[in-house]
Amino acid sequence: MSFAGLLDFARKDIDIPASSPRNLLKDVHSQFIHQYQADHNSYMYIMSEHLRVSGIYWCVNAMDLSKDLEKMPSQEIIEYVKTCRNSDGGYGPAPGHDSHILHTLCAVQTLLIFGETIDSETSNEIASYVKSLQQEDGSFVGDIAGEIDTRFTMCSLATCHLINRPNTLNIQKAIEFIMRCYNTDGGFGTRPGSESHAGQVYCCVGSLAITGRLEEINRDRTAEWLAFRQCESGGLNGRPEKLPDVCYSWWVLASLAILGRLDFIDEKKMKRFIFACQDDETGGFADRPGDCADPFHTVFGIAALSLFGDETLEPVDPIFCMTKRSLGKLSIL
Ligand code: GRG
Ligand code: ZN
């Protein structure tokens, strides 16, 4: 490899192609999402059964943010999500799959986006499932496999908040565990001693916000670590020396919004990167310009643009990643 080639390899950023889209192509994304969820025979659909309920939340939320929720087959989706519920009170990704906190939160979010009432008995059972995941040290496992991760703390606290059962969990211990994952650089990791990662910062800052404990951290220090995620291209990475990816537009920007520091990011450059991740032919957003679009990067790309106040989109809540409309215009910030 030439010296110039080596330099290019070491440079952790991308060039935005001159032909990239420069504004939001909202309608083509609604078509992309609608088609994705309707085509049950596609390779992508069949291969993603293990994350189906999360996928449903990404699609339904993208449509709600795009003011196109009525285009989704609400009854069919609600019935499907309900069949994913297990006798332990949690939800799996598909019928007959074990419960997992990631899918339990996504199931609750999906039902609430459609305006479904979760009755008191169901809420109690969900809360008891979530409680069963909390460990002695305050941390949470995601399922019976027993892995501990700050993602599962955020999902557990968010689920119990959304079903109005916040005191089911040991909040003090949950926060003590989160604070053991707070690093001196201002970021948070998956577990005590783990490297700071923007996804985990979102989970930990979100957990502190849900429990009203943001005063535990130095907001400016965390916001500075987040602001350093912005690359020359305008895109954001998840940690130092990594490539930018459009989903970090959400994880980083939402964290900054929760911290009241959105202005730490160069909005113009960032929007340029987000717009460039759109596929103007198939619709949808990819992680980076020119890659293959998928519902995960589509919802988080759209949600980030909503945080910047795009008027063609519904306003999003930075903690729960749902429209303020579906949360009843309530925010706990
Ligand atoms: C949306 C309310 C709500 C809750 C969700 C599960 C969760 C809570 C958040 C996940 C946050 C997270 C960890 C995001 C990162 C996702 C991602 C792109 C992981 C890839 O990690 P690496 O190490 O990628 O493969 P990098 O970018 O570091 O190379
Ligand atoms: Zn990504």
Automatic annotation (TrEMBL):
Query: Cofactor comment in the record?
Result: Binds 1 zinc ion per subunit.
Q: Which cofactor does it need?
A: Zn(2+)
Prenyltransferase alpha-alpha toroid domain residues:
24-322
Q: Does the keyword Metal-binding apply?
A: yes
- A biological process (GO) annotation for this entry? protein localization to membrane
Enzyme Commission number, as recorded: 2.5.1.60
Q: Mind listing the GO molecular function terms for this protein?
A: metal ion binding; Rab geranylgeranyltransferase activity
What Pfam families does the database record attribute to this sequence?
Answer: Prenyltrans
Is this entry keyworded Magnesium? no
Catalysed reaction(s) here are: geranylgeranyl diphosphate + L-cysteinyl-[protein] = S-geranylgeranyl-L-cysteinyl-[protein] + diphosphate
Give me the Gene Ontology terms describing cellular component: Rab-protein geranylgeranyltransferase complex
Q: What class of enzyme is it?
A: transferase
Keywords, ordered alphabetically: Metal-binding, Prenyltransferase, Repeat, Transferase, Zinc
Recorded family membership: Belongs to the protein prenyltransferase subunit beta family.
Q: How does it assemble?
A: Heterodimer of an alpha and a beta subunit.
Function, please?
Catalyzes the transfer of a geranylgeranyl moiety from geranylgeranyl diphosphate to both cysteines of proteins with the C-terminal sequence -XXCC, -XCXC and -CCXX.
The entry's protein name is Geranylgeranyl transferase type-2 subunit beta
